[in-house]
Amino acid sequence: MKSPKNKDFDRCMRTVLEKCGNSGMWADDSLNEFCKDYVQRASLSVLALNEYIKLISADNSTVYSVIMLDRGYEYFAEKEAERKEFIKSFFSNFLTGFLSGILVSVIGGLILNRLI
């Protein structure tokens, strides 16, 4: 069985947002079709564990409805904020490391030049 990836979570959340619409609940026959795929069902479970959605089911295999929680509406905004933070920290760490490498080389050269 294939395990869900980040793109599967995003695709699942887009579908849930589309199906819930203004009511905030998805409870029609298309949900049963959606849950037949293992990756989609696993994605729903992970989103529910992270408290983006709430699953209402009788057992672990049958989902009767999906309720969108407040945090679920902010899912893509959170992902965008995390991406921006990662890019910012990546470039700042790269720049700091690059400059410290140049500085060490210059100071090391000056010290060797003085000693010789």
What would you say this structure looks like, in words?
With 116 residues, the protein is mainly alpha-helical. It folds into 2 domains: 6-72, Arc Repressor Mutant, subunit A; 74-116. 68% of the residues lie in helices and 11% in strands. The chain has helices at residues 6-20, 29-35, 38-49, 70-73, 75-115, and strands spanning 25-26, 53-57, 63-68. Strands 1-3-2 form a 3-stranded antiparallel beta sheet. Strand 2 (53-57) and strand 3 (63-68) form a beta hairpin. Helix 1 (6-20) crosses helix 3 (38-49). The termini are far apart. The relative contact order is 0.11.
And the CATH topology of the largest domain?
Arc Repressor Mutant, subunit A
In quaternary terms, these chains amount to single chain
Judged by helices, strands and strand pairing, the structural class is: mainly alpha
User: How many structural domains does the protein architecture include?
Assistant: 2
Largest sheet: 3 strands, antiparallel
Strand order of the largest sheet: 1-3-2
Under the CATH scheme, which architecture of the largest domain would be assigned?
Orthogonal Bundle
Question: Measured on Cα atoms, how large is the radius of gyration?
Answer: 24 Å
Q: What general form does the structure show?
A: elongated
The chain-level mean pLDDT equals: 88
How much β-strand is present in the residues?
Answer: 5-15%
Count of extended strands: 3
- The string of secondary-structure elements, in order, is HEHHEEHH
User: How many helix segments?
Assistant: 5
Q: CATH top level of the largest domain?
A: Mainly Alpha
Helix content: 55-70%
How widely separated are the two ends? 66 Å
Low-confidence stretches: none
